[in-house]
Amino acid sequence: MEQENDKKVESKMEEKKSSKGKVAMYVWLASVVVFVLSFTNIFGSFTGLPFLLSILIGGISLVVWATKSKAGKKALIVTILLPVIFFLIYLFVVRPHKLLGNTMSPTFKDGDYVLVEKLSYYFGSPKRGDVVIYMKQSDNSSEYFGRILGLPNETVSLKPGEIKINGNVLTESRVSWGNLPSVSKTWPAGVVTLRGDEYFVFSDNQDFTSSESANFSTDQDVIQNALQKFLEDSVIKKSDISGKVLLKYWPF
Length: 252
Prior knowledge:
With about 250 residues, the protein is of the alpha+beta class. It has six helices and eleven strands.
């Protein structure tokens, strides 16, 4: 009789323990969902708060779940390993990035989240048409997006409305010259010959302002100097490139 009572008590305790484990599991799963959504714009300017709360509540619920079931213990081990794996992938393979501005429109727009992968350039070189993220040698504090148009040892000629590679007009349908009132074929061009480790990058939506256009139309020296400076600032080395844009993952 006593043994039967002990078994009933034991069974009730196990059921109670299992019930608490399930609640903790559901709370943890909800925290994971909030954590993932925190990397999008779904929470607007309050992104930081849901992010921190998801870590705090998710961590506590995971520990509780781990004390209540074997599945919880496995989930705890996996969760501990995930940040290490994530860090290694982020450092050497792929990482998310948010675009600011419309310089790559319409391919990518302001606020788009993209994945930038690094493996391609460990084993190969950038190709014409690749969209890359890079840092300028004159500004190591900011990252920029651009499309590779000029390759090593090529001569690039640039003026509004026309880009030439080794004397041939480049026909790149994804590249636009933005807000340009008029294009004059008589304008002088900036010219640069790329070295063996240099690339020429250009925005898909390059916007020349009306003030620049006004100066261009009246002073040939201003035209040439401005274009030459712009051209030289758009020359980067392979070591300046952080990675290649793989895809846009948000918004869908």
